[in-house]
User: What shape does this take?
Amino acid sequence: MFTEIVVRPLYNGLVGLMDIIPGLDVGLAVIIFTVIVRLILYPLSKNSLLTQVRMKDAEPEAAKIRAQYANDRQTQAMKIMALYKEKRIKPFSGILLLIIQLPILLALISVFYKIIPTIDASLLYSFVHAPAPNPTLLGIDLTNKNLILSVITAIIQFFQLHFSLAAKQQKAMAAQTIKNGGKPDTAAQLSNSMTTQMKFILPIFAFVSIYWIIPARFPEASSIIAIYWSVSSLFTLGQELYIKKKHLK
Assistant: This one.
């Protein structure tokens, strides 16, 4: 059922896109396909990002409330919920996005695994032509793991996290400083240190996953997943910058 409802439509979409691209370039098809998938998910991810950014902006006020009502948890919770309502914050908006994204991600791994070196005709609809794919991107062979693509994925992941987490670090430090009576807060410093470490740990994890872990199970899909990961990270970065600029003035 999962294959029919999720995997097969995505697979036919990618194959159909590949068929109309000059040269049947798999890499270019995956780039365009990734952008299309992310655009379809944009309304959900927009709400999730808006909530995240608004929560960052509201954190100093929330910290004041926590400090003021430290001994009255019920009033504290009511005040914070009132603040969230005023700021149009929906704390659980990211859950729906996660529920939808997870099966799509699992389906995409299956799709990418079955796209090269040959098309799996058993998954195609009757009206979708089965082309002979050209498994390259700018001359790079996509049928095996690739060091350059793995490094690029890690670098893009680093910059996406750097820009996404920079504002979070500043807001967290400001909020904890307010909570601590204007003095530097040890917890905030520790949190910032962990956030900084995360900016390096996750890119390393991305590299290790693309270059070693994924090839061990899906050798033909490693480079394609690297392309998807890179384009998706760039899309997330651009989306967050756009939302901050256009919707949170």
About this structure: Helices lie at 2-20, 26-40, 42-68, 73-86, 93-113, 147-179, 186-217, 222-247. Strands lie at 136-137, 140-141. The chain has one domain: 2-247.
